[in-house]
Amino acid sequence: MFHVQESPAKVVATDSAGTHTELPALWLRERCQEPESLDGPTQQRLFNPHQLDDDLTLIGAERIGDHQARLTFSDGHTGHYDLRHFADDFDDGDGLPTPRPWTSDIDFACITRDWQTLAEPDAFREALETYLRHGVIILQNVPTDGGHLVEVGETFGHVRSTNFGTYFEVCSRPDSNDLAYRSVPLAPHTDNPYRDPVPGIQLLHCLTNETTGGLSTLVDSLAVAEQLRAEDPEGYHLLASVPVRFRFIDDGVELIERRPMIHLDAMGRMDGVHYSPRLDYLPLMDEASTRAFQRARRRLGELFSHPDYEIQFPLGDGELMMFDNNRVLHGRTAYDQNEGFRHLQGCYIDRDGPTGHYRALAKQAQTDRATATTESETAA
Questions:
Q1: Residues 335/213, Cβ–Cβ less than 8 Å
Q2: Spatial separation of the C-alpha atoms in residues 300 and 275, rounded to whole Å
Q3: Can you give the pLDDT at residue 312?
Q4: What is the C-alpha end-to-end distance of the chain, expressed in Å?
Q5: Hey, how many other C-beta atoms are within 10 angstroms of the C-beta on 327?
Q6: From the centroid of its chain, how far is CA 325?
Q7: Rg of the chain on CA atoms, in Å
Q8: DSSP codes of every residue in 177-190
Q9: Which residues pair with 7 in a beta bridge?
Q10: Beta-carbon neighbour count of residue 184 at 10 Å?
Q11: Cα–Cα distance measured from residue 278 to residue 266, given in angstroms and rounded to the nearest whole number
Q12: How confident is the model at residue 176 (pLDDT cuts 50, 70, 90)?
């Protein structure tokens, strides 16, 4: 809610908790909305706000109707404002669904969708919302004649090519450059923490699985990290603040990156981890900090593999799981390659693909609802 006061001129925002915040003059001036200042189609500014005087003040404020105001500034500018546009600045989620941490009792039905139905915009928007809330979605009925995961990836975002290629084959190869291409078990991990930027989203598509082993595993780091923070605040802080060195070696490339194991977003909220015990190196600290760090990362690994948090399931032919590579850790139980063939394909897309699509579709749905309401009221 926004209150406009004429004397002295000010605009005050009140949030859902009842906290009042006076909006600074520079903040308001930068957000002017008239056509000569803001391009309508792109919503990009037609002036440079960095050149505004830092001592600029608000000298006039007039409320117009329920949601409008006319504001005048000391630099001589007068602008007409729709105050509802300010609401986006107070949304820390930037229009996205609130994440829902989950544990091993998650209902698979709530994260499973039929790929063949997602050509319908409403179904696609709902699938995006499911993915953004849980960090994972499982798609059924994806054709298995090879390469269709790229089509899925390009539907949700844009496939990123790496040294593994546009997409990669996951099957047993004794002399492979990564343990993922062996039949050994893989503990919960995130992919490519040694890369900058880290791939945001991974897709794994099962073409065939003739083995009784090789179960896919997933665990939500949001739920696990909250448990670690409750048990060991000091250790949690170390994992979230001390950079760890990650390293990967392949023919013709050596990739190294340093980043904390627990990742905090720009608002200071934990939104995922960088975790791969096969690839990380203990940072150099004093003895006490080293012991505390080790206790915390050992406990983190225990929780990641705990049956209260980890789910195990067979990924069947034609099923594809898409998951946030920072939030949701994945792994695999061992399998006997003599039982039959197990063949998956994988690829990566960036995190801004699903978020960008979701915002656009949600905004269109909101516009459609408003139009339908107006038409209904007019007809009545």
A1: yes
A2: 10
A3: 96
A4: 30
A5: 25
A6: 9
A7: 25
A8: SSGGGSSS-EEEE-
A9: none
A10: 12
A11: 28
A12: very low
